[in-house]
Amino acid sequence: MFFIKSLLLAAAILALAAGCTPDKKTTTEPLEVDIQNPVIQQILGLKNKRDTKSLLPYLSVENPAHRYMAVLALGSVQDSSAIKSLATLLNDEYPEIRTAAAYALGQTGNLSAANYLAESFDLDTVRSVQAAMLEAIGYCGDMNYLKYMATAPPYPIQDSLLWEGQAASIYRFSLRGLVHKEGTTKIMNDFIANSLMSPKARFMAANYLARTPGIDLTGYENVLLNSVEEAKDINTLLPLLIGLAKTRTPRARNRLLAMYDTQEDHRAKVNILKGIKFFVYDSVKTLAFEALKDTSISVRITAAEYLYYSGNDLDAPKYFELGLEQKNWHVASLLFGAALRNTIYFKSKTKNFYSARIIALYKESTNVYEQAALLKALGNYSWNYRFISQSMFPTSDTVKIPPVIRSSATEALVSLRKSSDFGKELSLSRVRVANELNLLFKQAIQEGDPAMLAIVAEMLTIAELDFKTVYPDYQFLKEAQSKLSLPSDIETYIYLQKAINYFEGNPNKKVTVESKSYTEIDWQLIRALKDNHQITILTNRGNITLQLLPDVAPATVTQFVNLVKAGYYNGKFFHRVIPNFMAQGGCSRGDGWSGFNITVKSEFSPKVSYNQAGMVGMASAGKDTESAQFFITQAPALYLDNNYTLFAKVSKGMPVLQKLEIGDVIEKIEIN
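Above: the chain's sequence. Below: its structure in token form.
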């Protein structure tokens, strides 16, 4: 049966390419949705409760707006039991409802949904609906569907929506780890090399090149060189730069090096620096050294990160000297870490010298984020374990160690224990130090600090380290888990459960934790926000104004605004900033490991996407675990779609967003 249904997709694509699909009845009446409508509010409330059974009857009601909203609601619920009912909406007279049904079916991630989509594809003549079906298949199809998608004959060039749907489908497949060489061929030949391709389709194809690991682009040097040269849109250029780097050819390398000096947008410089990892170090290192002098902090951080991960022993002394010259603590700490990480293991005197200087800087600093970064740098040498461990645990009840320090010290200890140089550096002391660390790791679990718990728990599942032998009695893991507070410690709970599953011999067992305390939609508040309501984040760098999206994510907006009104975010930090990705803040601990006592159910929608910079989402540890932390994208991040609730977008203050650094302060958030 499945093989027959798979063939239906191939037949549908062939029929479409030939222009012989039958007509489908489509209404011309507009579909209007008002979320102040009591029935629609009831539907959204049921979505928030994840009540599939109560939502299903709305799929067959007469009012099209109610059907539409019920379908979208099921797209967030993602319940496979709704597949058959959703499939009936693929025949709805409203193309908006058919589009939403395709989206909701894709969100189930179930192969049977792909079969329904394939059957309906050639029965529809509305290109936007068919494009949605193609993309949805990328969310739920298997390798057979990917192969058909990748080898289908080209569409007429005027059918830009179908091209966009096909590119999106192949990209969505890749994000699920499903990659076919013919898919890469199609992306390159039909999308990147085609000068007539629509900008949106090319943008999606470029993201495939940048995000898909392991693809071979060595034969596409000329195509990518031309594409990078002709790219007018920065959002398309950014992933194309990574794609060009993946060809690994001398011409590609030389072109990227030459382009660096001509770039006015620091984001392009960042991606060039991210791309040079695909080339031999000695052929590109000069660029990294030059980039350390750039005016953009994002560029300098990216250059230092390159040297950290790709450097060598010969240049390690230079990294350290450059670190001492740096005025920015983040860049300096990365360079110190690069020096320790890349100095060969038997140069103990050199490593001890570097470590002593770093420890002195740590003791002089009054910035906890700088101290945290220096601890991580120290984690690149095994003999630093004692100093790091001393920074983790208070010497008395009167000593209070900041959470940022405790979590970073734990990361540093875990890092050195996982290092391939651990045994080499410690030599005859390896067993003794390993035993000391085993006691420290157990103490970290028993301390009850959520960050320390999670970081150590994740390490315990590494089979090569054989912690099953170290801790034959792992009852202490269960005891630590029982003391956690849910839902605020839900992320730590999940890490501990994964560790427990590993010790019990079930490492692949799925871990799900359902919060029993979640935010309900405040419709009175949403009504007040409906008319172009904005909020402003006041930071030490300047102000960022956000346009809230209550129509898309009413529960999340309710949670966020209530926290703003309560002053929760005042004085919080941006604890995580990744160049060309995002800035994240709102953690009460300051290290990303705090939750809130009420969670928010994930709210996904095909009406919004992380397809540009300035999109605001909720951080989470998985579906339905959102709480208080939020992030703002600094560049497109399509891979976040339908994984992280998008509830606002930047309307003013983008230059401020691009300048944010770790440790910058959210002074307050004002409701305009």
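The CA atoms of residues 139 and 176 lie 8 Å apart.
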